[in-house]
Design a protein that fits this description.
about 70% helix; about 10% strand; about 270 residues; three-stranded antiparallel sheet; mainly alpha; single chain
Length: about 270
């Protein structure tokens, strides 16, 4: 079975991208058409992931596009009347994301042991958020799971479009800020030492900003390990802080209140 990368158009004409495991490109096209998409391009996936092998599999994550594709497939198979376990096994066989495959496999085992679909999904909080799980549970209780999956597909497509727009909006500012930091470190690492050796020959006191640059260069050269440790401690403390209820509330409130980008984050 090969992995194929595809481009397709949905009913609104929006371009979607994804990957699918199948025997031939014709089968991929048939599956996409069955799901209501118009195939535009289907090519065999590059083998870059196989080159890094176990390292890639260890750090692979389930992208939002993979979750949306999972929801679309589950909705299509449930609407067609297939049993739940059969639908999950079929999706697992078609998925090219190893992390998603393992999660589906564990979900199948949990359902076979007596758990409901929503309870099995709740054990994979890194993939299915509480809203997703709650809606699935509502569909199970009301007997309208296909309808709920259809609603989740619509919500997922909308959120994916907003995320793409947000990434496009912040791409240019991110490049500018990254360039500023790169230029600053290049200045500290290469330019300041040359001027420092020149200024050291004179007895004239240096301007305060220049003294700050020279001091920064000295700290980065002689205490770079302490600088890295400080960054690591700050990152760890920040991650621990946002895992708490008060920390998450504070951080989300800060993100939503950022000018210009706050409303975009809120919509996402």
């Amino acid at each position: 079975m090969k992995n194929f990368e595809y481009k397709a158009r949905d009913k609104e004409g929006q371009l979607i991208r994804g990957s699918m495991a199948s025997e031939t490109a014709q089968l991929v096209a048939a599956k996409l058409e069955f799901m209501g998409y118009l195939p535009v391009e289907i090519v065999v996936s590059a083998r870059a992931r196989d080159f890094v092998g176990p390292f890639w599999k260890r750090w692979a994550k389930v992208r939002f596009a993979d979750l949306n594709f999972f929801t679309r497939q589950l909705f299509t198979l449930q609407r067609a009347g297939l049993p739940l376990l059969g639908s999950l096994n079929a999706i697992k066989a078609q998925s090219s994301n190893d992390a998603l495959k393992k999660s589906i496999e564990q979900m199948v085992r949990d359902i076979e042991s007596g758990l409901t679909l929503s309870d099995a999904m709740a054990r994979h909080g890194n993939i299915f958020n509480p809203l997703y799980v709650s809606m699935i549970k509502t569909g199970e209780i009301s007997g309208r799971l296909p309808e709920i999956l259809n609603r989740l597909t619509t919500l997922g497509d909308s959120e994916e479009k907003i995320q793409r727009r947000l990434k496009a909006a912040v791409r240019y500012p991110f490049i500018v800020v990254a360039s500023i930091f790169a230029g600053f470190f290049a200045l500290i690492a290469f330019v300041v030492p040359r001027f420092s050796s020149i200024y050291s020959q004179f007895e004239t006191p240096l301007p305060f900003p220049t003294q700050i640059l020279i001091l920064t260069h000295y700290i980065l050269v002689h205490f770079w390990w302490l600088f890295l440790m400080g960054i690591g401690v700050l990152v760890y403390a920040f991650r621990f802080f946002i895992k708490t209820s008060a920390g998450r509330r504070t951080w989300d409130g800060f993100c939503i209140g950022i000018p210009i980008f706050g409303p975009l984050i809120l919509k996402m």
